[in-house]
Amino acid sequence: MTNFIKRVTASFSLLAIVASSLCTSAFASSHAEAPLISLDRFADNTDTYAFRSVEPGREGFVTLIANYIPLQEPSAGPQWFRFDDTALYEIKIDNDGNGTEDIIYQFQFTTQTVNNDTVLGQSTVNQDGVISNLNDPDYNMFQTYSVRRIERRQGRRGQLLGAGLKTPPANIGPRVTPNYEANLGQPAVYNLPNGGKAFAGNRDEYFYIDLGVFDALNLRSLGVTGGVDTTKSYNVSTIAIEVPIQEVTSSRAVPASPTAPDAVIGVWATASRRSTQVLSPGGRSFSGDYVQVSRLGNPLVNEVVIPLSLKDAFNSLSPQFDGTIPRVVQAVTDPELARLLQAVYGITIPPPPRNDLVSIFATGIPVNAVTGPNYTTFLSDGIAHEYLRLNVAIPITPIAMQNRLGLLGGDVAGFPNGRRVFDDVTDIALRAVAGGTPFTPATNISPNNTLGDGVSMNPEGPLLTRFPYLLPPNQGNQPRTSNQMLTEQQNALGYESITVDERGFRRK
After folding, report:
1. Angstrom distances, CA of residue 54 to CA of 402, 423, 465
2. What is the 8-class DSSP label of residue 174?
3. Exposed, middle or buried by CB within 10 Å (0-12, 13-18, 19+), for 247?
4. In whole angstroms, what is the distance from residue 68 CA to residue 89 CA?
5. Which residues, 6+ apart, have CB-to-CB distance to 398 below 8 Å?
6. What three-state secondary structure class fits 11?
7. How far is the CA of 14 from the CAs of 104, 424, 459, in angstroms?
8. Residues above pLDDT 90, as percent of the chain
9. How far apart are CA 470 and CA 421, in angstroms?
10. 264 to each of 320, 391, 414, 477, how far by Cα in Å?
């Protein structure tokens, strides 16, 4: 027991680093970032988003999105990707700043099969082989789910918001799932009794980044263009819920102003599994309490901040334990990533202590002279807690006027005020950790305040203007960009083009 306490205490010290070094976390989404979760992709939370709804007429609602199961190949049949029936997926909200969830939106899934006597899986030819609606018999392995709202002060049972809701199938291909969004995507958006909406299913992996960042910051470009969107054409599994603003605030009312004490909420998502799994020939069973195995608030905290030996521990712990150990001071005031940027690019960085990063990412931004009297994301009991912070009283920015750089671009409705899917968190993070922000005026100069990864938009198109905002999943049975690039590379290297006859023999 003593050794266990020592291990947990050690993890707390590094968890404290997370909140303080949060700006370093946005270099990529959280894809397979820890040893255990890399072996459990169906519980792997890749991105979490929280923003006021921008759909016309829905400005009084907050949209919360959690993506799971990273880098899904659109043609990965015959089973494709679906949520795990044995996992518990949750979106959590802290509205009083103590790092403990006050409200939970809980999603659980059940898979049902129309016809087991087939060699295929999610789709088969029970009728004509075409899935034309959510109740089509050719949707052979379909999932339903329940949505429950749990409020800590009212007990763990909570309120059932929806049951028997159906997820759409994968976007299998033009023959099996034609007119995907009209036939299957939008019909899977359900109205909830609280006036909100819910959706669960496959969507496009909209997060964009050049993952050359992991090759020792070997980016193809440090500007707005010139990079390669490494996540292009992959899909993810999305849980999205839209809820009234007054349902998530500490006062249970719409805040009177952005500086009201109930205006800021903290948001993160988790996945949990039963503590015991028993394998048997052709089956498995689960028992015991749920144990948290994945956690994500701000992007990539675990991936580039937490050391390898403690990544699994971070995924299992609550934000209430972040920032409780004095060792956090050094990590907050002298972050390693800033020194790496200095070494690789030869830039001048702010000297420690980096109090700018503490205020931006550890506790939220208090009212100050830089951002003005009507802006704050402050939510803290004096201890760092790592999660997204969203001020629900700051007005939305119309889609046509949004700036991908959020606050750095003068758009106060964007990151780090929550996180919209549109926000370019990679560029924002690079500039913040380099000291290229107004909070550090001495280093708010080029190149510090112009750094980027060369990818400033998702090339697959603008987001939807309605819930759930993410684009439909990429369609299977289509040529992939990587296949086309391979052919071009082979031609450039002088590889001979080979053709074969109908028997598979090489033609002369």
Report:
1. 11, 14, 7
2. T
3. middle
4. 9
5. 54
6. helix
7. 26, 26, 36
8. 58
9. 8
10. 17, 4, 14, 44
Residue 22 DSSP one-character state: G
What whole-number distance in Å separates Cα of residue 76 and Cα of residue 378? 43
How many C-beta neighbours within 10 Å does residue 354 have? 25
Taking only the tens place, the pLDDT of each residue in 197-251 is 999 999 999 988 887 777 777 778 888 888 888 888 899 999 999 999 999 999 9
- In angstroms, how far apart are the furthest CA atoms of the chain? 78
- Residues with Cβ within 8 Å of 217's Cβ and at least 6 positions away in sequence, in order, are 340, 341, 344, 345
Tokens representing 461? 């198109």
pLDDT of residue 299: 75
The per-residue pLDDT for 144 is 98
Answer whether 247's CB lies under 8 Å from 61's CB: no
For the segment 381-408, what is each residue's pLDDT rounded down to a tens digit?
A: 988 888 999 999 999 999 999 999 999 9
- Nearest to residue 105, comparing CAs of 122, 93, 94, 115? 93
Residue type for position 369:
A
Pairwise CA distance, residues 243 & 197, whole Å: 7
Query: Distances in Å between the alpha carbon of 487 and those of 121, 211, 361, 383, 483?
Result: 32, 22, 44, 54, 7
CA distance 475 to 375: 41
Q: Does residue 270 contact residue 294 with C-beta atoms inside 8 Å?
A: yes
Structure tokens at 116: 């087991």
For residues 203 and 183, is the Cβ–Cβ distance under 8 A?
Answer: no
pLDDT at residue 222 in the model? 84
Q: Which two tokens stand for residue 485?
A: 């690039």
With a CB cutoff of 8 Å and minimum separation 6, the contacts of 424 are 208, 404, 405, 452, 456, 457
Question: Residue 319 corresponds to which tokens in the numbers above?
Answer: 């934000």
3-state SS track over 417-451: CCECCCCCHHHHHHHHHCCCCCCCHHHCCCCHHHC
Q: pLDDT tens across 152-166, in order?
A: 877 777 899 999 999
Would strands 190-191 and 159-166 be described as parallel, antiparallel, or unpaired?
unpaired
